[in-house]
Design brief:
Number of domains: 1
Helix content: 10-25%
Strand order of the largest sheet: 1-2-3-6-7
Shape: globular
Distance between the termini: 37 Å
CATH topology: Peptide Deformylase
Strand content: 25-35%
CATH class: Alpha Beta
Number of strands: 8
Order of helices and strands: HEEEEEEEHEH
CATH architecture: Alpha-Beta Complex
Radius of gyration: 15 Å
Mean pLDDT: 96
Structural class: alpha+beta
Low-confidence stretches: none
CATH superfamily: Peptide deformylase
Largest sheet: 5 strands, antiparallel
C-alpha cells in the first residue's frame, strides 16, 4: 500500500547532493518508492516529484502533469516514472516560465528552460524509453532532472527579482 512521504524542504542536504543510479528497477523497494512518489505528488498537487525530495538520493522521478490548484493550466498526461533519466539533447530555443517546487513552498520563479528536449530513461518495468518532450512537459522533466543533480529551481532564476510569493503567482496567472 503506497504511503504519503514527507517532502524534504529547502535546506535539507539531500536536495543538494547528486543522486545515485538505480541498480534494479524491478527491486520491490524501488517499485514501492515509485508508488509512494505517485501518491505524494498527487496529494501535494505536484506535476512532478523526484526521489531526493522524499529523502531517497536515487536517480528516479515522476512526471505527472495535470491541471490542479498549483498549476491550473497544466496539460494532462499519464503519470510516468523515469528511472536513471538522461537529457540526450536540447533545443537552442528556450522559454522563460513560472516554476514552483514542493520543496520550496510559497515561492515561484521565472526560470529559463529549453523548449524541446530529447530524453532517455528506464520505465518502471525496466524498458528503455527515448522521447522528445516539449513545452510544459519538457519544463517539468528539466526541473525534476535538476533535483537528481542537486539543483533547485531558484538556482536557475536570472535574478532574485524573478521570484514571487505563491499568492502573487496565483494572482498573476488567473
Amino acid at each position: 500500500m503506497p504511503i504519503l512521504r514527507q517532502i524534504a524542504q529547502l535546506g535539507q542536504p539531500v536536495l543538494r547532493e547528486p543522486a545515485r543510479s538505480v541498480a534494479d528497477p524491478a527491486d520491490p523497494a524501488i517499485q514501492a518508492l515509485i508508488d509512494d512518489l505517485l501518491v505524494t505528488a498527487e496529494d501535494a498537487n505536484g506535476v512532478g516529484i523526484a526521489a531526493p525530495q522524499v529523502y531517497e538520493p536515487l536517480a528516479l522521478f515522476i512526471v505527472a502533469s495535470r491541471p490542479n490548484p498549483r498549476y491550473p493550466h497544466a496539460p494532462a498526461m499519464a503519470p510516468t516514472a523515469m528511472i536513471n533519466p538522461e537529457l540526450v539533447w536540447t533545443s537552442e530555443e528556450t522559454e522563460t516560465g513560472w516554476e514552483g517546487c514542493l520543496s520550496v513552498p510559497g515561492l515561484r520563479g521565472l526560470v529559463p528552460r529549453h523548449r524541446r528536449i530529447g530524453v532517455s530513461y528506464m520505465s518502471r518495468t525496466g524498458k528503455l524509453c527515448e522521447e522528445e518532450l516539449s513545452d510544459f512537459i519538457a519544463r517539468v522533466f528539466q526541473h525534476e532532472y535538476d533535483h537528481i543533480h542537486g539543483l533547485v529551481f531558484i538556482d536557475r532564476v536570472a535574478s532574485t527579482r524573478d521570484l514571487v510569493s505563491e499568492k502573487e503567482y496565483l494572482r498573476i496567472v488567473s
